[in-house]
Amino acid sequence: MAGTIQQLSESVVIRSLKRFRDRYFPNSGRGVKEDMKPATDTEEEEPQLGFLDSLPVDLQFLIMTLLSPAVICRLGATSRYWRAMVRDPLLWRYFLLRDMPYWPSIDHVTMPQLELLDVPLVNEDENLDDRKEGEDKGMESKFDYMSEYLKGCPSCRQQWLPSRPAYQLVTSFLQSLVPSSEPRYAMFGPGMEHLDVSLVTRLMYAPDVLPVSGTPHRQINGVGSGISYMFNNQHKFNILTLYSTNRAERERARVEQQSISNKLFTCDGADDSGYPIYSPAPQVQQVCQVVDGFIYVANAEPGKGGSMSEVAQIRAVLSSAGGSTSRPLLVLSCVSREEPQAVMTTSQQNSAYRNRARCRTPCVDMAKRLGLPQLANPWMVQDTVAESLSGILEGISWLLRCSGVKL
Fold it and tell me: Which residues, 6 or more positions from 195, have their beta carbon under 8 angstroms from its beta carbon?
């Protein structure tokens, strides 16, 4: 992704916008033509040149890079000129490549079509400079980067979620008074064992985040245990941890920096594509058939993970769930500790911060690495920090909603 963003540099976008303005809005820097006046002007009023319209294109582009996606869309509603500028596919392709590595979550609904980023910037038969404003319907079907960005950006998803009708609020309140069954989730993955900070231990001793509402009780012979938590002081759920082996072997392998034999799965060979084929152990299959969903803890630290066995083991677990494709999969893309100076507001995430090398695998790359877009089950990837448990509540909230819990 880094090579692609370098290919689509700011100068390329500015050059494209400048050619577009010079061709179809040649007087935007000297005056506004009659068909370009803002939508709020009346026929009797003399069209006035807007301050932003008179700025050079490179300054207009700089301003747009500092605005939120919602504000950019509102800017496009002010005049025909800005509508054409903010809908330029090259502009939103640049935003998509720039911001995707910093999205803290992605799911099966909002995952961008990454194959759109592999197409050439300009096709031989479809040149961006030959596209007039209002005549881009044919290109939008294949190069609608704006829709891909707005669909995937977490801040856009939260801002444009439809409001719940009043009767649904009353119904949710009444349903909260009725005791519901306690959802159970199986948690597994290398991030539970390979990180310097244990996510499971932090969960057990973080009453301010997820209070423990039930004492641990053994569910599998020496391999895992179940703990009940309370979400939002209202909804109980159970997490059944599935370790690859017992604690003594895990600690010895960590000290000696050696790999251990995963007792949760047995390898049955490889398929035609070279992917290993795994079968869950009998006790793991029993767990997969009774739980309501799965939590996979992935190691998102740089240079960790990425083996084909991860994809194969996730598929093996999901296929053992009685053939049901409705059970959700939450992927906690986990690192041990916060990045230095990573706690920033949205307005502070400027270009200087974005240009820094990020010390974790982006959630979009994690979804691609684990082959999640090919799954039939609903899934979500959530950036998580083991030490602070940052992001864990967002992931659990999504998981509970997928299980039918009214939050």
Answer: 299, 301, 334, 335, 336, 386
DSSP string over 5-58: HHHS-HHHHHHHHHHHHHHH-TTTTT---GGGS-TT--TTSPP---TTTTS-HH
Report yes or no: 26 and 135 within 8 Å, Cβ to Cβ. no
For tokens 């939260």, the residue is 158
Report d(CA 250, CA 241) in Å as an integer.
14
Whether the CB-CB separation of 335 and 389 falls below 8 Å is answered with no
Residue 240 β-bridge partners = 186, 226
Q: What pTM was computed for the model?
A: 0.80
Show the DSSP H helices in 116-184 as ranges.
137-143, 145-152, 154-159, 166-176
Give, in order, the Cα–Cα distances in Å from 74 to each of 123, 179, 356. Answer: 30, 44, 30
Report yes or no: 12 and 90 within 8 Å, Cβ to Cβ: yes
Q: Left if phi > 0, otherwise alpha if psi is -120 to 50, otherwise beta: which for 231?
A: beta
Q: Is residue 346 classed as helix, strand or coil in its secondary structure? A: helix
Structure-model confidence comparison of residues 126 and 30, the more confident one: 30
**H or E element at residue 298:** strand 293-299
Neighbours of 262 (CB within 10 A): 17
**CA 206/CA 209 separation, integer angstroms:** 5
- Give the Cα separation of 191 and 162 in Å (integer): 35
Average pLDDT rounded to a whole number, residues 323-336? 91
Using CA atoms, how far apart are residues 375 and 10, in angstroms rounded to an integer? Answer: 35
Lookup: tokens for 82: 């800005």
**Helix or strand or coil: residue 197?**
coil
Mean pLDDT of 87-108: 91
Window from 92-96, 156-160, 374-378 with minimum mean pLDDT: 156-160
